[in-house]
Amino acid sequence: MDSPRSGWRPLNVGVVGGGIGGMSVAIAMRRAGHQVTIYERNDFAGEVGASVSCAANGTRWLHEWEVDVAKGDPVVLRSLINRDWKTGEPVSIYDLDDYEKRWGHVYNMFHRQYMHAMLKDTALQEEKAGTPAKLVVNHPCKNIDMETGTIHFTNGSSAQHDVIIGADGIGSVVRKIIGLNPVKRPSDSSCLHCNVDTEEAVRHGLVDYSQNSALEYWGGQEGKWDKIVLSPCNGGKLLSYYCFFPRSQGDYVNQTWGGEDRPVEELLNPYPNLDPQVKAHLAIGKDIQPWRLWVHEPYEYITRHQVCLLGDAAHPMMPHQSQGACMAIEDAAALGILFSPPYFDGNIVQTLQVYETVRLPRATRVQAAAAKAALNINERIGFSSNTNISNYKVDDEGKKLTIEEMNAYDMYKDIEEVLAAARNMPYAQSSEWKRGLPVDLFQTG
Ligand SMILES: Cc1cc2nc3c(=O)[nH]c(=O)nc-3n(C[C@H](O)[C@H](O)[C@H](O)COP(=O)(O)OP(=O)(O)OC[C@H]3O[C@@H](n4cnc5c(N)ncnc54)[C@H](O)[C@@H]3O)c2cc1C
Question: Which family, according to the similarity comment (predicted)?
């Protein structure tokens, strides 16, 4: 590691929330030389059983942090396939064969529980760089005294920290504590998720979609909410289906994940004309759970004093770019770099402001693009490059989110540019790089 900057010191970091983002930032801050304690409200017994995708912009940090990715038992994706709603014939294919060569890292599809366990093990393990993070379960955060940096928990205990990171998900308490009141509305679409056991599908004589190692979509070209998203995970043994339909056909806004499974009829009813091959998969679907979808307007800020937000607490987004987890990982990476010996000068408040300046614009662009892709799959990273298909149409060609913007992003360069401005210093690479992107890729919209 480079020699420490003057003023650098090890910090006592408190992380509220031990989900994907909380575990990631615990790893990043541990690697940066800090002591980390993670406070989780429950004991993980109800972890969500569904797939989570981790594109190259997330995978690169897993590698940088020396996470044992094999422990997450991922499927490495080979393509994105968009299929006709009724026939299942491919309409748009985005080939990922050269993905690793182009971007240096693969596109992983994890099962959420495996991904979480993989991150948790890395954060807590004795081996590898940094002090193992401490995990304290059954500690729901109730309040934070920002004068003293003290977290108060509902069980009556409290803990003092130099920096507090709110990684407490979409319903964040920390967000409220730092004074944010989200402007949000329920999405016009609903989502039910189900799992299909690949072996069982094959036993029923159904198509073995796991063979494609692809993220597959039915619908999405017609400006309708109806869309089926299939992602294979657990090495292909499990098929995870996200099924979207208009909220008028089933409203789950007031239901939470983890309740009793919904009956399979609720999953099938909205889809009278769906490709029979995939519909037969849904018919044997298990663990049918509603996913509440809320559209949040971007927040004006994500840090106050020595407290900041990360992941869904900071920028909850619709799932249509599959970037929620990746954005949480990128947030964690940004904090890890900013607080690392070569960059951190001891000024916590200024460092967190730089974090906000680095993270908000990029996460907000992805958030907006995720909402747009809900009704038009051509706006989805990857498919947004398939300009030669007959159905291709996007809102604004100049503003669409591209695979290049996501994966050519260099966070170190972004941080160096923003830090230089904060410290009133010139940024040496301004003719070639703008906000972490080669200048020709940088867009403001
Ligand atoms: C069903 C489902 C499928 C998804 N699929 C994808 C996908 O394919 N690709 C993708 O990129 N993203 C996906 N996401 C989104 C992705 O999981 C999130 O964007 C990502 O997990 C964000 O991580 P996070 O740490 O911010 O939030 P979470 O992972 O939700 O973690 C928040 C944690 O904080 C804890 N917590 C909450 N309140 C408190 C409190 N007061 N005190 C202490 N702890 C608290 C919670 O118990 C939880 O452990 C999916 C999400 C869901 C629910």
Answer: Belongs to the paxM FAD-dependent monooxygenase family.
Output the CA–CA distances (angstroms, integers) from residue 176 to 21, 107, 126, 146, 166, in the order listed.
Answer: 18, 34, 35, 13, 10
Confirm whether 86 is domain-assigned.
Answer: no
- Per the structure, the complete domain to which residue 435 belongs is given by 12-77+104-182+299-444
Amino acid at 140: P
SS3 at position 19: coil
Asked if residues 168 and 177 have their Cβ atoms less than 8 Å apart, the reply is: no
Pocket probe mutation, ligand 1, options 119, 312, 366, max atoms within 8 Å of Cβ: 312
Is any atom of ligand 1 closer than 6 Å to the C-beta of 140? yes
In order, the DSSP letters of 27-52 are: HHHHHTT-EEEEE-SS-STT---SEE
Pocket test for ligand 1, best of 37, 38, 168 (most atoms within 8 A of CB): 168
State pLDDT tens for residues 26-81: 999 999 999 999 999 998 766 668 999 999 999 999 999 999 999 999 999 999 99
Residue 94 in domain: no
CA distance 243 to 225: 10
Q: Over the stretch 338-396, which tens digit does the pLDDT of each residue have?
A: 999 999 999 999 999 999 999 999 999 999 999 999 999 999 999 999 999 999 999 99
